[in-house]
Design goal:
It is a single chain. The protein is mostly helical. It is built from eleven helices and two strands, in the order ββααααααααααα. The protein has helices at 28-37, 39-56, 67-87, 98-118, 120-123, 128-137, 142-150, 167-179, 185-196, 205-209, 212-219; strands at residues 8-12, 15-19. A two-stranded antiparallel sheet has the order 1-2. The longest helix is centred in the middle third of the chain and has 21 residues, at 67-87. This is YGL110Cp-like protein.
Length: 220
């Protein structure tokens, strides 16, 4: 599948910079049109995305991406998380195709594996994108999501960036949703999963999340 890409490898100081740009995940309306008019093209596009992330997860490939490709990857992740999070809790009439569903499931898994491998800072996942990440993955992966947020789940790539606790950022985002009247039932469900879903290990996340300052913010 990767043969469809125009790969450019530059050797600089003994390191190979991989140029392998990725196009943004298509918005809902475009996906609906593809499914209705040309489902084969849509299936092939998803298969290409899957192959792309499989490739990035091999060895140190993701660490060798040049800056332009890394920027494209970050943009893809933001658009993907936005689109998939927007579908959570909704009944969508995009039609059911077994092959498409299977590839979307694989894509979702590979993307989460990459995020865990690289960490939030390296991929610049914060603000709306961080909450979208929670909405998409917290139900089935509460421990990993908590670890990404509080920084206890360390990246597996070679990075010098300190993994900061993002709990305050999540708190502020929830505060903005509530104050703007945009806090929905799906958001409430995600908060419940984030704080109370069963854990494979002692769950101190909720205890640390509910600080006195956070409670004062909610009561204000």
């Amino acid at each position: 599948m990767l043969s469809r890409y125009n790969r450019v490898i530059e050797i600089n100081g003994g390191n190979a910079d991989i140029s392998l740009p990725i196009v943004k995940f298509p918005p809902f309306k475009l996906r609906a049109q593809l499914i209705e008019k040309d489902p084969v093209v849509w299936l092939h596009l998803i298969e290409t995305y899957v192959a792309y992330f499989e490739y990035l997860m091999q060895g140190a490939n993701v660490e060798l991406l040049d800056e332009s490709t890394l920027d494209h990857l970050r943009l893809f992740l933001r658009t993907y998380l936005h689109e998939i999070a927007d579908e959570e809790g909704k009944l969508l009439s995009l039609g059911i195709n077994h092959d498409v569903s299977e590839q979307l499931y694989l894509l979702k898994g590979w993307i989460f594996s990459l995020i865990k491998k690289c960490g939030l800072l390296h991929l610049q996942i914060f603000g709306d994108s961080l909450w979208n990440l929670i909405k998409v993955y917290v139900r089935r992966n509460p421990d990993s999501i908590r670890g990404l947020i509080d920084g206890s789940l360390k990246p597996r790539i070679n990075t010098q960036r300190v993994q900061l606790d993002k709990s305050y950022q999540v708190q502020q985002h929830l505060k903005q949703l509530i104050e703007s009247g945009k806090f929905k039932r799906i958001d409430l469900r995600c908060v419940e999963d984030l704080l109370s879903a069963k854990s494979m290990q002692p769950n101190k996340f909720a205890e640390n999340f509910f600080t006195a300052n956070w409670i004062e913010i909610l009561e204000a």
